[in-house]
């Protein structure tokens, strides 16, 4: 094995703060060849094997909870969720009977803000499934990601995404879908009243996302204050860019 700390890795440590939680640290390359289909088009080629070492504050995902609910491992689900809250959501009291509702609200807000940030810099994650969405709302597991060269809501960096499910313009809606799956995972641990509260929180997602989206674009445009027509100007600008 040859351990290479490549200069190009620096390019992956983006200047945008939303990408700083995930750092590419090293690349270990093997002399042994492996067969790969890099563009998922049937054109298999032989390449050297490699392992990338990455660091993040946490690798727990929405899918980490979802799979436990699906398999009926509710004791493990509760244990894992309590650990995640204690370790990463220290402002949530561990003895709060509504801690899971507060946790869901926090994840929903931060996810909405994260995707708004993605959109503000033209970043397309590429594979926005529940197993690639962090419970800490940090950007990770963005394999076939890309930045738009010109404005196109249908931009898809992932060549295997034939249907455009994870196009840049669909990311906000996919975020809502994933949060619905998170709530489904939490459902066995919630009382009927807590579930009702959580459903109301889920309904607030579009407003939270659009508010943050508009804040970011108003800052880009240098808008001061809060005018009624700001949203119209932003929508008009993006439509013109398209």
Please tell me about this protein's structure.
The chain has helices at 9-12, 62-70, 74-88, 99-120, 171-186, 192-203, 205-221, 230-241; strands spanning 2-4, 23-36, 45-55, 123-124, 146-147. With 242 residues, the protein is α+β, with helices and mostly antiparallel strands. The strands form 2 sheets. The chain has a 3-stranded antiparallel sheet with strand order 1-2-3. A two-stranded antiparallel sheet has the order 4-5. Helix 2 (62-70) crosses helix 5 (171-186), helix 4 packs antiparallel against helix 5 (171-186) and helix 4 runs parallel beside helix 6. The longest helix is centred in the middle third of the chain and has 22 residues, at 99-120. It is globular, with a radius of gyration of 20 Å. The N and C termini lie far apart (47 Å). The model is unreliable at 1-17 (pLDDT under 50).
Outline of the structure:
Helix content is about 45%, strand content about 15%. The strands form two sheets. The chain has a three-stranded antiparallel β-sheet. The N terminus is likely disordered.
- Strand percentage lies at 5-15%
Order of helices and strands: EHEEHHHEEHHHH
Note poorly predicted spans: 1-17
Structural class: alpha+beta
Termini Cα gap: 47 Å
Q: Quickly count the helices.
A: 8
- Main-sheet strand order equals 1-2-3
Task: Tell me, rounded to a whole number, the average pLDDT.
Answer: 90
Query: Globular, elongated, flat, extended or rod-shaped: what is the shape?
Result: globular
Radius of gyration: 20 Å
Number of β-strand runs: 5
Largest pleated sheet: 3 strands, antiparallel
Helix percentage: 40-55%
């Amino acid at each position: 094995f040859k351990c290479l700390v490549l200069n190009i890795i620096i390019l992956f440590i983006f200047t945008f703060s939303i990408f700083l939680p995930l750092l590419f640290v090293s690349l270990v390359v093997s002399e042994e060849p492996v067969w790969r289909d890099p563009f998922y088009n049937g054109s298999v080629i032989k390449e050297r094997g490699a392992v990338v070492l990455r660091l993040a504050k946490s690798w727990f995902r929405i899918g980490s909870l979802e799979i436990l609910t699906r398999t009926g491992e509710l004791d493990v689900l509760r244990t894992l969720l309590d650990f995640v809250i204690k370790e990463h959501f220290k402002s949530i009291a561990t003895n709060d009977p509504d801690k899971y509702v507060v946790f869901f609200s926090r994840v929903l807000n931060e996810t909405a803000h994260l995707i708004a940030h993605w959109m503000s810099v033209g970043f397309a994650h590429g594979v926005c499934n529940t197993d690639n969405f962090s419970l800490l709302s940090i950007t990770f597991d963005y394999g076939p990601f890309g930045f738009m060269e010109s404005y196109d809501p249908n931009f898809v960096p992932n060549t295997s995404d034939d249907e455009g499910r994870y196009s840049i313009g669909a990311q906000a809606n996919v975020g809502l879908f994933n949060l619905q799956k998170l709530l489904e995972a939490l459902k066995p641990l919630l009382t009927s009243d807590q579930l009702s509260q959580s459903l109301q929180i889920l309904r607030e997602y579009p407003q939270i996302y659009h508010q943050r989206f508009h804040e970011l674009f108003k800052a880009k445009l240098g808008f001061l204050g809060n005018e009624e027509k700001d949203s119209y100007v932003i929508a008009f600008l993006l439509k013109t860019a398209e």
